[in-house]
Design goal:
Keywords: Signal. This is JmjC domain-containing protein. One of its GO terms (cellular component) is nucleus. One of its GO terms (molecular function) is cis-regulatory region sequence-specific DNA binding. With 254 residues, this protein is of the alpha+beta class. It has one domain. Helix content is 19%, strand content 22%. The chain has six helices and twelve strands. A six-stranded antiparallel sheet has the order 6-5-7-8-1-10, with helices on one face. A four-stranded antiparallel sheet has the order 9-2-11-12, covered by helices on one side. A two-stranded parallel ribbon has the order 3-4. Strand 3, helix 1 and strand 4 form a beta-alpha-beta unit. The radius of gyration is 18 Å and the shape is globular. The chain starts with a strand and ends with a strand.
Length: 254
């Protein structure tokens, strides 16, 4: 499960091409309605070195963030957040999500670059069926459903406002910033292929996500309808994630 807060995010103020793979959330078969989220073996992705600069939350401040990263248009990973997220992590356990929001309808998007197809299901249906299935090699992104955002109903209600109220923002967001929350859940090896992203903050609450970051130019080669998992797996076998003629390799981090 993840909570996303726009302006700023891990990519600081740089405009980047972003892809991410959810490498661990749940097992492949349900055991009981209130069992916890379960780990998934991400294979070689577990051994990848983080090439994004990091900063511990204990050393983080808005002034340092703006001076060191935002001013340089550089991404940063904030570490040491687990203790800060104990309450929100409890609010997003599998059992709590099913008990509190299982009957809420969520709008799912196809997990391709442009996310143009939408499907509405209850959160319970999505968790117990779609999330339980690990994305496989050969599975098309435009045939894979993923929940991220689309929180406001047609009548203007946001049923997730109570959950969002339990999320305590960090002090790294400038006062007066235009802020919007986005929350989502993805199954093993799910994720959206490369797409352009502006300033924002992305935080993984439960499980792991593997991020790929690159400047807009030169644009990495990718098929918008190929899953992020397949793209990353093929590039991993090739030994390079960016194009062969790119001056620098893409940044990545779990």
């Amino acid at each position: 499960a993840q909570s996303r807060r726009r302006r700023p995010r891990r990519a600081a103020r740089i405009v980047v091409l972003v892809a991410s793979v959810v490498t661990a959330v749940v097992a492949t078969r349900p055991v009981a309605a209130h069992r916890p989220w379960r780990a998934h073996d991400a294979g070689a992705f577990n051994q990848r070195t983080c090439t994004v600069p990091t900063m511990d939350v204990a050393d983080a401040s808005l002034e340092r963030f703006m001076r060191t990263f935002a001013a340089a248009n550089a991404p940063v990973v904030i570490t040491g957040l687990r203790a800060h997220r104990a309450a929100f992590r409890e609010a997003t356990t599998r059992g709590r999500m099913l008990d509190d929001y299982g009957d809420v309808k969520v709008t799912l998007s196809t997990a391709n670059t442009f996310s143009y197809d939408k499907v509405v299901k209850t959160l319970r249906e999505y968790i117990e069926h779609d999330v339980e299935k690990a994305v496989e090699i050969g599975q098309r992104a435009n045939e894979t459903l993923y929940w991220f955002g689309d929180h406001v109903d047609s009548d203007g209600r946001n049923v997730w406002s109570t959950l969002f109220a339990e999320y305590a923002p960090l002090s790294l967001v400038p006062a007066g910033a235009d802020v919007a929350f986005s929350f989502g859940i993805g199954g093993p090896m799910s994720g959206v292929p490369l797409h352009v992203h502006g300033p924002g903050w992305s935080e993984t609450i439960v499980g792991r996500k593997h991020w790929f970051l690159a400047p807009p130019t030169p644009a990495p080669e990718f098929d918008p309808n190929v899953t992020a998992f397949q793209w990353a797996s093929e590039r991993l076998r090739r030994g390079r994630f960016h194009n062969n003629d790119a001056p620098e390799e893409m940044l990545e981090c779990t």
